[in-house]
Design goal:
about 240 residues; alpha+beta; Beta-clip-like; four-stranded antiparallel sheet; four-stranded mixed sheet; transferase
């Protein structure tokens, strides 16, 4: 059975008009190069037009998943003020630009790749939540394995975050007797978290530091921060 080929009609914009009303029902056909170029130029010009309200358009829209995540955090956030909630929410969806590289204080360090205002959440200290008994066992095992640096952060009396083998960039933050950040324990979803806050304005490529606040012990650990009011030891 032979079908008569419909005549190629063109619309006002130069593109071919679909006689059957649907491009899929007309089968494969080639588009003229001139028409294709004209269409691409028109679409490109439309895409490059600046939006009428740049302040609204430039912000990425919140998806349904992100909105539900914000509501869940809002309902479960306890033990801190509303400002902490907003900052933690922003930190979760928009992480600060950070990098780790060689430090003049000790080995590796964490540096800011963007300006950070004062009293902002910089990064969460991520690791495994373990008990004191497990921490003592792991500390001995790490010494036997030759891991000299300690990446354990105490949350409370019986909870410690171990970031030695399961952590993020926060474990590279060095100690300083005159730090530009401080650590704070907050509670989210009934779980305690450690977040590093900026103590002052932090410039680009400036190293992020905080006071470890180690307990006083007989065996002293030398401090190499080099600040004017350096105590000389970490403990």
């Amino acid at each position: 059975t032979s079908f008569s080929t419909p005549k190629k009609k063109k619309r006002d914009d130069g593109m071919r008009e679909h006689v059957t009303g649907c491009a899929r029902s007309e089968g494969y056909y080639k588009i003229d190069k001139k028409d294709k170029l004209k269409y691409l130029n028109n679409s490109r010009a439309f895409a490059e037009e600046p939006p009428a309200d740049t302040q609204v358009r430039t912000c990425p829209p919140l998806t349904a998943g992100r909105r539900s995540e914000q509501r869940r955090l809002l309902s479960s956030f306890t033990g801190s003020c509303d400002s902490d909630l907003l900052k933690f929410n922003q930190l979760k969806f928009r992480k600060k630009k950070l990098k780790f590289c060689k430090s003049h204080i000790h080995d590796w360090g964490l540096f800011a790749m963007e300006p950070i205002a004062a009293d902002e959440m910089v990064i969460e200290y991520v690791g495994q939540n373990i008990r004191q008994v497990i921490a003592d066992m792991r500390e001995k095992r790490y010494e036997d394995e030759g891991i000299g640096s300690s990446y354990m952060f105490r949350v409370d009396h019986d909870t410690i975050i171990d970031a030695t083998k399961c952590g993020n960039f926060a474990r590279f933050i060095n100690h300083s007797c005159n730090p530009n950040c401080y650590a704070k324990v907050i509670t989210v979803e009934s779980q305690k978290k450690i977040v590093i806050y900026s103590k002052q304005h932090i410039n680009v490529n400036e190293e992020i530091t905080y006071d470890y606040k180690f307990p006083i012990e007989d065996v002293k650990i030398p401090c190499l921060c080099g600040s004017e009011n350096c105590r000389g030891t970490l403990n």
